Amino acid sequence: MEKTLKVEGMMCEHCEARVKKALEAVPGVESAVASHKDGTAVVTMSQDVPYETLKKAVEDQDYKVID
């Protein structure tokens, strides 16, 4: 199962790493790939994780998820 989030505020590879780490710490998330160039984070999950849970993980790192 995969979800793509639009993420605002990532400027570099360090930002990508912070978003990736935050998302991968969420239970049920298998992996995440963040791209500052595309402004996205693609999340692969082993079970359905609520959108709000993913959004909070990103926004807790001071990035904005655009609905």
Description:
The chain is α+β, with helices and mostly antiparallel strands. The chain has a domain at 30-67. The protein has helices spanning 13-24, 51-59; strands spanning 2-8, 29-35, 40-45, 64-66. Strands 2-3-1-4 form a four-stranded antiparallel β-sheet. A hairpin with a 4-residue loop joins strand 2 and strand 3. The longest helix is centred in the first third of the chain and has 12 residues, at 13-24. The two termini are 19 Å apart.
Outline of this structure?
Pfam families: HMA. The protein has helices spanning 13-24, 51-59, and strands spanning 2-8, 29-35, 40-45, 64-66. With 67 residues, it is α+β, with helices and mostly antiparallel strands.
* Low-pLDDT segments, ≥5 res: none
Average predicted confidence as pLDDT:
98
Characterize the overall form. globular
User: Structural class, from secondary structure content?
Assistant: alpha+beta
N-C termini distance: 19 Å
Residue share in helices? 25-40%
Number of beta-strand segments? 4
Q: Describe the largest sheet.
A: 4 strands, antiparallel
Beta-strand content: 25-35%
Q: Tally the helices: what do you get?
A: 2
- As laid out across the biggest beta sheet, the strand order is 2-3-1-4
How is the topology of this model organized?
Layout: E1 2-8, H1 13-24, E2 29-35, E3 40-45, H2 51-59, E4 64-66
Antiparallel strand pairs: 1-3, 1-4, 2-3
